[in-house]
Amino acid sequence: MSKKSEKQFEVIIEKLDQLLEENKQLKTTIAQKDDELSLQKEQIEFLTQKLYGPKKETLKNNPNQGNLFNDNFFSKPEQTGGQSNNDEIIVTKVVRRKKRKGLKDQKLSFLPTVDHIHEIESCSCPTCEETMKEVSTQLIRQEVKFIPAKVENHRHFQKTYACANCEKSGTRTPFAKSEIPKLPLNNTAASASLIAETMYQKFEQKVPAYRQEAYWDLLGYPIPRHTITNWHIKTSQYYFEELVAEMRQELLNQKVLHADETTFKVLNDKERQKSYMWLFSTGKYSERAIHIFKLGPSRSGSVPRDFLENYTGYLHSDGFSGYNHLPGMTMIACLAHIRRKFYDARPKNYSSKSVAHKGVTLCNELFALDKTLNSLTVEDRYEQRMKIVKPKLEAFFEWCDSIHAHGKLGTAITYALNQKDRMMNVLSDGRLVLSNNLAERGIKSLVMGRKNWLFSKSFDGAHAVATILSLVETAKSNGLHPRKYLDYLLTYLPNRQNTPLAAYLPWNPKVQLECR
To answer: What is the 3-state secondary structure (H, E, C) of 304-343?
Structure first.
């Protein structure tokens, strides 16, 4: 081969190498673009589901879906063969729900009863015109009548007495006056029941103050929105904050707590766009049911650290980093949050073979397994968890560790493995639970109200929201009617002298008797 031909051949080889390198780079770029496109499609499907799909994380029952926690699931491969699907006979048993008898009478039994006896116009016999005798009185129907609320002006007169004998003798005449209970606030005609009703409407019925204006106007006593707000702020500062502080001390004495947080807007806060409302609750098996809301300037861990002070018990929470460095506490993760990550990672047209769907199912079975232990004592629940829940929980994290994925499934796997140590802490005590749903449900009361109130104008108003919500949610958890409890507090706290605050807490026997 001539030198010219060799040179031409070398040039061709060089160009071929360049083309191969460019082809390799293009394939790499295409693969990256495919991954990006796949992630974008996954994100679009996720956002579409959040916007238009059902919010509840439920799975349809599949009769062909077996128990993923059987003995062979993690140790042996799936067995093939056997009877084909075409030869399978699935027997579906239709269970008809039995109609509950006496439900209407049971509901009506708690209401005051007014009897209406309907008489005939004439008791004369149409045949002989003699007076007919009564044979029977029969109950034909029962109806529930609604009596609209009304506002009354209750006037209080004070009597004064003087000693006539001393007056005749010329000595100093003593006077005696009857005592009149104090109102919650001075320079206002608002009674305890009126203020309690405005609180009940706002914090339980979620009716903001500006919408209450029209309601009170229709009842014949107009109340401006700023007056309602001022009542809530002042009564919280005068009476409720001290009572909630007493509740906080009781909360810190409990061994198990839950915590959660959400955003809350304060208009007068010029430094930041949003503040945060925190919730601290006692556990499911605690001696006291307590929920305390706390307004925090940020979402940093300093808020729970300051609120809980030297607390050394167990704290349930989600995976937020603000709970990472709380001294002296044993952190418990939330399996419901782990499950939600897998639920959000499921593809649009998922099947039972989907890895993300399998993660959801495994979490569901852990919940179902632990639910069977609810009726046990704390000691028995601890022993049974170590026997039957611990192996399944360990197997779940081993399964997570064996999955290598990216996108939302990769995020779910990473989140689950990062929460492994905290999740295994649930086995430390029989009073612990698998999820933080207690705090999640508790803070939902604020979230629903926030959709109507939108914001608080001042920090005083925001603190009042936290204080009153603490009383309302704690009262409900202890079986009290929130309006009755607020009325009780606003009636007796302004006239309290040496009575300890513990006498007004929701679990006090007298409070239980009068506020249910």
So the answer is: HHHHHCCCCCEEECCCCHHHCCCCCCEEECCHHHHHHHHH
pTM (2 d.p.): 0.81
What stretch of H or E contains 373? none
The token pair at 233 is: 């702020």
Assigned token pair, 275: 């503040």
d(CA 246, CA 71): 51
- Could you tell me the pLDDT band of residue 92, with boundaries at 50, 70 and 90? low
Q: What is the token pair recorded at 451?
A: 């959709």
- CB-CB contact of 474 with 227 (8 Å): no
User: Residue 247: left (phi > 0), alpha (psi -120 to 50), or beta?
Assistant: alpha
Render 381-444 in DSSP notation, one character per residue: HHHHIIIIIHHHHHHHHHHHHT----HHHHHHHHHHHHTHHHHHGGGG-TT--S--HHHHHHHH
First to last CA, the chain: 107
Half-sphere exposure of 57 (CA within 13 A, CB side): 16
Length of the chain counted residue by residue = 516
* Angle, alpha carbons 153-154-155 (nearest 5°): 110
Cβ burial of 433 (10 Å; 0-12, 13-18, 19+) is buried
d(CA 55, CA 339): 14
* Nearest CA-CA partner of 403 in 319, 336, 335, 345: 345
Q: Do 287 and 231 contact (CB within 8 A), yes or no?
A: no
Backbone angles phi, psi at 341, to 5 degrees: -60, -40
Residue from 493, 497, 469 nearest 482 by CA: 469
What are the angstrom distances between the C-alpha of 345 and each of 52, 338, 354, 361, 444?
17, 11, 10, 13, 24
User: Residue 131 — φ and ψ, nearest 5°?
Assistant: -75, 130
Q: What token pair was written down for 70? A: 């059987």
pLDDT tens digits for range 290-340? 999 999 988 889 999 999 988 999 999 999 988 988 999 999 999 999 999
Q: What are the pLDDT digits (tens) for 199-221?
A: 999 999 999 999 999 999 999 99
CA 158 to the chain's CA centroid: 47
